[in-house]
Amino acid sequence: MVQMAIFGAIIILMASTPFLGYITIGPTRATILHIPVIIASLLLGPKKGGALGFLFGLTSFINNTINPTATSFVFTPFYSIGEVSGGIGSVIICFVPRILVGILPFYVYKFAMYLKTKRGKGGVSNTGLILAGVSGALVNTVLVMNLIFVFFREGYAAANDVAVSAVYTFILGVIATNGVMEAIVAGILTLCIGRVLMQKKIREILGFRNDFGY
Predict the structure, then answer these.
(1) What's the CA gap between 82 and 62, in Å, rounded?
(2) Distance between CA atoms of 197 and 186, rounded to whole angstroms?
(3) Contact between residue 144 and residue 93 where contact means Cβ atoms under 8 Å apart
(4) What are φ and ψ of residue 213, in 5° steps?
């Protein structure tokens, strides 16, 4: 519970700090809140990681409700712009990808460790840390943007002043710019932080469970 509380406090603090957890870029927001969720997934496991991913989604839900941008309707049912308003799709977009951010990196890293130990090598997997960070960031961006297309393509096109027929091209552009940049940053930070915290002795000292089979 203490470990969960520490990570939860970090997420809330980042989400509450302007231009740290959420960075407004035009009509949308970029984020680095997936970083502590990814690290928590590796250290605490997928269940607690998923719970902290839910907290990540909750901060987004609250932020887009009380401090909206032109596209906040895709993250909260309590905001509308013109004739476009959020709904159940907003809740799915806000929470499902963020919960997966706390689940997927654990299994990506575990698979990387399986391959490493199969080759007779031990220690922390640098490749696994990078892939865990990248996968956590990308599952958030790719799922969010594609679910926006599924639920709100017309409203999202109007909010960004693009034609409905061109909205998926616009979405791919967001993934290729914001998404790739977030994935690179996540990979680097997960490697730098994980190289320290994922060492067996450090995990034992801090009381984190050993779920990777080494």
Answers:
(1) 21
(2) 16
(3) yes
(4) 75, 30
Report if pTM > 0.70: yes
Question: Which residues contact residue 134 at a Cβ distance below 8 angstroms, ignoring those fewer than 6 apart?
Answer: 183, 184, 186, 187
- 3-state secondary structure (DSSP) of residue 40: helix
Q: Which residue has the tokens 């806000």?
A: 94
Task: Using DSSP, state whether 35 is helix, strand or coil.
Answer: helix
Give the pLDDT of the chain (214 residues) as one tens digit per residue: 888 999 999 999 999 988 788 877 666 677 889 999 999 999 999 999 999 999 999 999 999 999 898 899 999 999 988 888 899 999 999 999 999 999 999 999 999 999 888 887 778 899 999 999 999 999 999 999 999 999 999 999 999 999 999 999 999 999 998 899 999 999 999 999 999 998 888 888 877 765 554 4
Q: CATH assignment of 2-206?
A: 1.10.1760.20
Dihedral, 34, 36, 37, 39 alpha carbons, nearest 10 = 120
Domain ranges of the chain: 2-206
The DSSP line for 151-207 is HHHHHHHHHTT--GGGHHHHHHHHIIIIIHHHHHHHHHHHHHHHHHHTSHHHHHHHT
Q: Which tokens in the block code for residue 165?
A: 């027929």
